[in-house]
Amino acid sequence: MEKYSGLNTMWILVGAALVFFMQAGFSLCEAGFTRAKNTGNILMKNLMDFCIGTPCYWLVGFGIMFGTGNAFFGTLDPMIQGDYSAILPSGVPLWAFVIFQTVFCATAATIVSGAMAERTNFAAYCIYSAVISLIIYPISGHWIWGGGWLAESGFHDFAGSTCVHMVGGVAALTGAAILGPRIGKYDKDGKPRAILGHNLTFAALGVFILWFCWFGFNGASTVCMDTDAAIARAGLVFFNTNMSAAVACVTTLTVTWIRYKKPDVSMTYNAALAGLVGITAGCDTVEPWAAAIIGMLCGITIVFSVEFFDKIAKIDDPVGAISVHGVCGALGTIGVGIFSNGLGTEHKGLVYGETAQFGIQILGGVSVAAYVAVVMVIVYTILKHTIGLRAKPEDEIMGLDISEHGLRTAYAGFAMMPEEYYEDASVAIAAAAAEIKGQTPVEDAVPVVKEAASVSDGTPKFTKVQIICKEEKLYALKTAMSSLGITGMTVSHVMGYGLQKGDLEYYRGVPVETNLLPKVQIDIVVSKVPVRSVIDTAKHVLYTGHIGDGKIFVYDVENVVKVRTGEEGYDALQDVE
Known about the structure:
Blueprint: H1 6-32, H2 39-66, H3 94-115, H4 122-144, H5 149-153, H6 161-179, H7 200-219, H8 228-260, H9 265-280, H10 288-312, H11 321-339, H12 356-384, H13 393-398, H14 400-405, H15 425-433, H16 442-445, E1 448-450, E2 462-469, H17 474-483, E3 490-496, E4 503-507, E5 510-514, E6 517-526, H18 531-542, E7 551-557
Parallel strand pairs: 1-7
Antiparallel strand pairs: 2-6, 2-7, 3-6, 4-5
C-alpha cells in the first residue's frame, strides 16, 4: 500500500480550498464593476460555472488532461477510473489531486463571465461553460501539465498564466467580440461611453479576496512541503506573487495619475490582478527583482490594453478580463523566457544570455491562444445560431436579474439610479416598444389626467408635463424627449401606490407583496414644443400594456424665471448662452 504524506496532502487540500474561494472574489469583483440590475445574474453565473464544471471535469476533463494518451490528447476516462499514480505528486492521494485540479479548471471557466457580462443568454453561458470544462481547458492543459507536447518541449507554466488565465482570457476575447458591445456602450460615431460599475466596495473586496487566495493558487502549486527545497521554493513563490501585484498597483497608479491627471481607482485594482496573473507562470523560477519588473510591465500594460480594446478594437469588456487574464497572462508566459534563472526550466532566460526558453514560451503561448480561439469561435457560433448567444435587447435594458431569473432587484430596500445607455431616440423607442406584451389599449394603460388650467391673458403659454413611470424606462423617455427638442427636466425618485396596488414576486418560493413601488417622477415645462407631442411620445415609450405603466399629468404654469440671468417667461426656457 502506498504511503501518503499528511503534510503534502494537507498542503494540496488547503490550496484547493483557497483556489475555490477565488470564486467569491470573482463574483464580487464582477458584480461591483457592472450595473446593479445584473448583480443576481453575475452571482448566479459564477456559482454555476463551478457547479457545472465540477461534474464535467470529473466525467471527462480530468482523463483528457492527465490520461496517458498521446502528446495532444489524454484519454476518455469517465468518472476517473484509471491509474494515475505516475503523475501524482509525492505522497498525495488521487482524489486530493483531482479536487486541486478541479478548482483550477473552474477558474478558467469563470474568467469568461466578466468580459461577456450584462448581455449574455444565461442558458448559452451554462453550455459554453460546460464545454470549457469538458474539453477546451483539459486539452490545452494536457499539452502543458499532462505530459503533452509542450511539456516535452520544455514549456514552463508553473501555476497557470497560460494554462488557466490565457485560456480564459482568449475565450473571453472571442466571446465578447462575437457577442458585441452592450447597448449604448458606443455612440453613433463609435466613441465609447463609460458605463459605471455600481459598487466599488464589492469590486475592491473581490480583488483583496483574489489576492489572498492567489497565495494558494501559486503557492500550493509546489504540490509538496516535505523537503527543504520545496519549503524554500514555496517561500519564493509567495514573495514573488505578492511583489508583482504590489508593484503593478503602484505602476498603474502612477501611469493613470499622469495620463488622466488623477489616480484611477478601478484601474489600479485591476492592476493588482494583472500583476498576479503575470507572475503566475514564473513565480518559482524568477528572482524577486524580476518579479518586480514583471509587475511593473503588467501595471503599464493593463492601462493601455484596456484602452485599446475599449477605444480601438471596440470590444466591450465590462470588467477588463481580457486585458487582465488574456494579455497579462501572455506577458507572464513570455516573462519566463526573459527572466528565468534556470531553476525549474530547461534553459535560462534572455537576461542570462540564453534564447531557447524564450522561443519555447512564445511557441506555447501562440499555440494555446490559437487553439482556444478557433474552438471557442465554433462553440459561440453554434450557440448564436441555435439557442442564441445574446440576451434580447429588451431583457438587456431591463436587466438580466429580472428577465433571466425573475429577481426584481438584488438590493431589496435600496433605490438604484438608472443608467444612460441609449445611442439615439430610435433605439430608445424601439427598445421600449419591444417590451409590449399586454392587450390593454394604450389609452387605458397610460391615461392622461388634465388638471384645471389658469386663464391665459395672451402671454406665451407654459405647460408642465409630469410623468410618473417605471425606473427602467427613465432614459428611454429622456432620450425620446431630447429628440423633440426638450433640453431640461427634473427627475425625482418616488414611491407609488395606485391602481397597481403593489407588486407580487417570489423570494425562495414565498410570495412577497410590496405595497409601495419605486417609481421616477419626471417634470418637464414646455412652451415652444407642442404638449401633445410630449404626451404622445411619452405614451409610446412607456406603454407595455400592463398595469403600472405610469401616469401623465398636465398643468398650466403661471411663469418661469431663470435664476442665473433673471430672464422670465419664454426666454427663461431657452437654452441659449
